[in-house]
Design a protein that fits this description.
The chain is of the alpha/beta class and 443 residues long. It has 3 domains: 2-89, Rossmann fold; 93-301, Mur-like, catalytic domain (UDP-N-acetylmuramoyl-L-alanine:D-glutamate ligase, 3-Layer(aba) Sandwich); 310-441, Mur ligase, C-terminal domain (Protein-Tyrosine Phosphatase, Chain A, Alpha-Beta Complex), CATH 3.90.190.20. Helices cover 35% and strands 22% of the residues. The protein contains 17 helices and 20 strands. It has helices at 10-21, 36-44, 56-59, 76-83, 91-96, 112-125, 140-146, 158-162, 189-197, 216-224, 272-287, 292-301, 329-337, 360-366, 378-384, 397-407, 429-441, and strands at 2-6, 25-30, 49-51, 64-67, 88-89, 102-107, 130-134, 151-155, 171-174, 208-212, 230-234, 243-247, 250-255, 258-263, 310-315, 318-322, 343-347, 367-373, 390-394, 413-416. Helix 14 links the parallel strand 17 (343-347) and strand 18 (367-373). It is globular and about 65 Å long.
């Protein structure tokens, strides 16, 4: 069997290693450059590879192709593979054939990283031998090759779910759905929603789907489509018989006639969206039979995720907050919504078809100045030019932070929450967040 891996990043290299271990003839091809640390791993494992090109003769003879999530379906090599009817799958799908461990799969437009890390924290503190993979950390395939864990919490993007045929999580979580990555779904929101719901398509009556019952896109889809999994909703507004809800500033989760109670002010994470993330993670922990005392303790000592509403420093009584992970409008909505002081907002990057209208009330209420940080800021200027008093365009993080510092007064917050992808000026949202932190530290 010939396995061709497209993409030499984390998921590609992990798949190549697992494929080789399972006796496939493996070839890896990346149209860009492969990072040196990954090259070393490929050489060490004697896996043939190429970079900055796709040699068709070495690719179109595959029995199966694992396509990295970052490669769009419209790329020429993918089109040619489809013409030849060569199966194209995701890393999760490939790795899953070689294991029967229990997985918790978590997807959503926002909150999935926090929910994934929090869920992993709860299960690990509860004594389970549990791994963390998917869109985060070391790839699932690589970890399956090493065979260390009895269960996994997987953060799954819509791109990873696009390549799923048979994979099913025992517990699936959909944190929320809002327009994102529409450039990859022909600007058709319904295609993106369908991609998210692939997480439950192979589930059976013995499996669970945990979801946000306040989310219109989710409840609308569920009202029109039948699923086999047991539904476990969570909500900030409704009282639920089965699932998680809020009463008197307290989270109640009721699962299989077992009730768990936790006052909101004891959560280590702040903000309404994190109450939802905590509800989702708690529900998973209850379904996995983790002790209530452990859940309570873990919810109160969890350290948040880097680049997600991360408090960097307070300088001259101005708080600097790094929310570089906010790569879409909905994530920035949560960030602005959690601001309690006048805010200088650093925003911009590669726009993925953003509609800034939903941010308007929050910007009017909370934002005193906007610093644009992108190659093309025209949409942001058009949206908010008349709403804030001051608006400045910048093209480097150091400049953006210096200007923000000048605009901020005692008691204000400087918030980096870009609402856009980072690839115009940065390598990744992590690179963007690190540059922000460095710039703040050198003020």
């Amino acid at each position: 069997m010939r396995l061709v891996v497209l993409g030499g990043g984390e998921s590609g290299v992990g798949t190549a290693i697992l494929g080789k271990k399972k006796g496939y003839e493996v070839f890896l091809s990346d149209f860009g450059k492969i990072k040196n640390n990954y090259k070393e791993v490929l050489i060490l494992n004697q896996i043939p590879w190429e970079e900055e090109t796709h040699t068709e003769d070495l690719i179109l003879n595959a029995d199966v192709v694992m396509k990295s999530p970052g490669i769009p379906d419209k790329s020429p090599i993918v089109k040619k593979l489809k013409e030849k009817n060569i199966p194209i799958i995701s890393e999760i799908e490939f790795a899953n054939k070689f294991t029967n461990v229990v997985t918790v799969g978590i997807t959503g437009s926002n909150g999935k990283t926090t929910t994934t890390m929090l869920t992993h924290h709860l299960l690990k503190q509860g004594g389970l031998n549990v791994g963390l993979a998917g869109n985060i950390g070391k790839s699932y395939a690589w970890q399956i090759a090493e065979n260390k864990f009895e269960a996994y919490v997987l953060e799954l993007s819509s791109f990873q779910l696009d390549g799923v045929i048979d994979y099913k999580p025992h517990i699936a979580v959909i944190t929320n759905i809002s327009p994102d990555h529409l450039d990859r779904y022909n600007y058709d929101y319904s295609q993106y929603i369908e991609a998210k719901f692939r997480i439950t398509k192979n589930q059976t009556e013995d499996d669970y789907l945990i979801y946000d019952a306040d989310d219109e896109a989710i409840t609308d889809w569920l009202s029109k489509n039948k699923i086999r999994a047991k539904k476990v909703p969570f909500s900030l507004t409704k009282t639920l018989e089965e699932g998680a809800y809020i009463k008197d500033d307290t989270i109640y989760t009721n699962i299989n006639n077992e009730t768990f109670i936790m006052p909101i002010n004891e959560l280590s994470l702040e903000g309404k969206h994190n109450v939802k993330n905590a509800m989702a993670a708690t529900t998973v922990a209850q379904l996995m039979r983790i002790r209530k005392a452990t859940i309570r303790e873990s919810l109160s000592d969890f350290q948040g995720v880097e680049h997600r509403l991360e408090k960097v420093l307070k300088i001259q009584n101005v708080q600097y907050v790094n929310d570089s992970k906010a790569t879409n409008v909905n994530a920035t909505f949560f960030a602005l919504d959690s601001m309690t002081t006048p805010t200088v907002w650093i925003v911009g990057g590669v726009d993925k078809g953003n509609d800034y209208a939903e941010l308007m009330p929050l910007v009017r209420e909370k934002v005193k100045a906007i610093v644009c940080l992108g190659v093309d800021n025209s949409k942001i200027i058009e949206a908010f030019g008349n709403v804030v008093d001051v608006m400045v365009e910048t093209t480097s993080m150091t400049e953006a932070v210096k200007i923000a510092q000048k605009m901020a007064e005692k008691g204000d917050t400087v918030l980096l929450s870009p609402a856009c992808a980072s690839f115009d000026l940065f390598e990744s949202y992590e690179d963007r967040g690190k540059q922000f932190k460095n710039a703040v530290q050198s003020l």
